[in-house]
Amino acid sequence: MTDKQYSLEEIRLRLNELDDQMLSLLSERRKLSIDVAKSKVETSKPVRDADREQQLLVKLINNGKEKYDLDAQYITKLFHTIIEDSVLLQQSYLQNLANPQTRKPLARVAFLGARGSYSHLASREYFSRKDSELIELNCDQFKDIITTVESGHADYGVLPIENTSSGSINEVYDLLQHTTLYIVGELTLPIEHCLVATKDIRLEEIKTLYSHPQPHQQCSEFLNGLKGVNLEICASTADAMKKVKELNRTDIAAIGNSSSGKLYGLQSIQGNIANQTENHTRFIVVARKPVEVSTQIPAKTTLIMSTAQEAGSLVETLLVLQKYGINMTKLESRPIMGNPWEEMFYVDLQAHHGSEEMQQAIVELTKITKFLKVLGCYPIENISHTQVKLD
């Protein structure tokens, strides 16, 4: 647009036109990303090329600064999102080729809570890249999710496993000790806690606050500042919001997500109430059968194992992983039910289960552990951003 003065309506119309153009270009770029994945099938090249991504970002930053007067951080943030989307699209395409038997027109997914729970949001986010229509099955407890999938009433289950604020979700780890299910995927979801109510009320008016125990922990600092408020536990954040809607009182509120609150006719009255501004929950996806993971995709393998009750037993297992250059991203211990003072260790490894290094490591680990089981090998979908130095 020139220096001519335009009305607000004319400016908004032009902005709408530009937005449509950007959407069209983003759609075209996504289609080209799939074409890239198809070419990599023939060449067996890995999905990610760190050097190429870094060169692309540097070029975009320089062009944006010199030609369009755009800030480097703005471009970096924007293209981190675009590159992440491209990587996930390519991974999904290659995984569909590797697992043709899992491509179904309908996918039955079990999750905790009703519509609008964080588990429900995670389910929709994870399966948005799959060519399947979702049949959503909400469950009241974590064990119900496991049972629903094990019995064949659901194809997949989505379970929260850890949170950056409140830590590991022990009940889920304990259930993994005894299930016959396999981990087939993972997803990290940003958690944006806020207070929702039937109308815009003051914090001083709240007498009762409903929530799942996890948000209570994750928002403990904010909650400690509320005086005379009774905390009521619900099976999920969605159930908490449903309760507030059903009671329809002006002295109650729930901890939830603002978008989910709108599903129940609730409005946000206080945002950003979590202890940490960067609050994320990692979810795992479980199924009755394991998946094949394309060697072109970064993968994670999860093991559970128990060691002898002797000094250095755990260290010995970790030295095996070091020997084969396998990076451990998570180590969690939980008591073995029925065996006092004995621990089961859950280990996330950044490696393909079928790789030579992983297979050799498993052989050696089997010899020095009392019990070892592979819970699953699955694509890494928490995409790390390519870093470039900003001036």
Provide a brief overview of the structure.
With 391 residues, the protein is an alpha/beta fold. The chain has four domains: 13-98, Chorismate mutase (Chorismate Mutase Domain, subunit A, Up-down Bundle); 100-191 and 280-287, Periplasmic binding protein-like II (D-Maltodextrin-Binding Protein, domain 2, 3-Layer(aba) Sandwich), CATH 3.40.190; 194-271, D-Maltodextrin-Binding Protein, domain 2, CATH 3.40.190; 299-379, Alpha-Beta Plaits (2-Layer Sandwich), CATH 3.30.70.260. It has twelve helices and 15 strands.
Task: Explain what you see.
InterPro entries: ACT-like_dom_sf, ACT_dom, Chor_mutase/pphenate_deHydtase, Chorismate_II_sf, CM_dom_sf, CM_II_prokaryot, CM_P_1, Preph_deHydtase. It is found in: Cytoplasm. With 391 residues, the protein is of the alpha/beta class. It has four domains: 86 residues, Chorismate mutase (Chorismate Mutase Domain, subunit A, Up-down Bundle); 100 residues, Periplasmic binding protein-like II (D-Maltodextrin-Binding Protein, domain 2), CATH 3.40.190.10; 78 residues, Periplasmic binding protein-like II (D-Maltodextrin-Binding Protein, domain 2, 3-Layer(aba) Sandwich), CATH 3.40.190; 81 residues, ACT domain (Alpha-Beta Plaits), CATH 3.30.70. Helices cover 41% and strands 26% of the residues. The protein is built from twelve helices and 15 strands. Strands 1, 2, 3, 4, 5 and 11 form a six-stranded mixed beta sheet that branches. The chain has a five-stranded mixed beta sheet with strand order 8-7-9-6-10. Strand 13 and strand 14 form a beta hairpin. Helix 1 crosses helix 3, helix 2 packs antiparallel against helix 3 and helix 11 runs antiparallel to helix 12. The radius of gyration is 24 Å and the shape is globular.
